[in-house]
Amino acid sequence: MGDTNPKIHQVAKPELEGLAEETGDLVNLLVEEYRKGIYLHREQGENAVEVDSYTGHRVHLHSTALGKAILAELPRERVEEIIDQHGLPATTENNITEREELFDRLDQIREQGVAFDDEERLPGLRCVARAVTDNNCEVHGAISVSGPSSRMQGSRYDEEIPQKLEEVTNIVSLNMGYS
Questions:
Q1: Are 171 and 15 in contact, with CB atoms under 8 Å apart?
Q2: Are 63 and 121 in contact (CB under 8 A)?
Q3: Which end of the chain is more exposed for a tag (fewer CB within 10 A), N or C?
Q4: Cα separation of 162 and 166, whole Å?
């Protein structure tokens, strides 16, 4: 995956800027490296909240919508290796800490095409994410929109943001294939 990181960053950056402007929220690009998630890029819309993540910040994949979107695209054996190495530690009381519960959630994410983080990484923060894959269904990263729980609810959280993410990840995926 290492050789695709600069490429996904370059291809995704203009789309992330547009998504942040359109939603007004915090938009993130995360990739999997050494079995953890690393934030590769962030864009802040005008109403974006300040959070503790920054470019280069590493997180457990199971504790973010971004990471779960990536995990859902990986083969089960690879997810098992990640869990074996890093465990499923809880950063908030909402984290999944049981292996089978995580695999059930990853099945849901694959079916829906979108991952949600309901105050799993930080109290008061909700997030919606989608994986960026290529023509060979290989995952290169994930893009998310994050905001306060008060704003990330109802049809905005369940429908509008997921639809915008689908458009953006499709564009990024297509552009990665042609860049």
A1: yes
A2: yes
A3: C
A4: 6
DSSP 3-state percent helix, strand, coil across the chain (nearest 5):
45, 25, 30
Q: What token pair was written down for 87? A: 């465990």
Distance CA 127, CA 110 (A): 17
pTM of the model: 0.94
Mean pLDDT per segment of 10 residues, for the chain of length 179 residues?
66 96 96 94 91 85 96 96 95 92 97 94 92 89 96 95 97 84
Helices first, then strands: H and E counts in the chain: 6, 6
Is residue 137 within 8 A of residue 150, CB to CB? The reply is no
Distance CA 54, CA 157 (A): 23
Query: Domain 2-178: which CATH class?
Result: alpha beta
Q: Where are the domains of the chain?
A: 2-178
pLDDT score for 120 = 86
